[in-house]
Amino acid sequence: MTLFFDVVLAVHLAALALAGLASFGMPMVARALANAPPEGRAALGALRGRIANAGLMALGTLVTTGTVLLLIGVNKPLGLWFGAKLTAVFVLACVVFYARENAANAAKGDAAAQARAPKLARLSTALLLLVILLAALAFG
Question: What is the pTM of this model?
Answer without folding.
Answer: 0.78
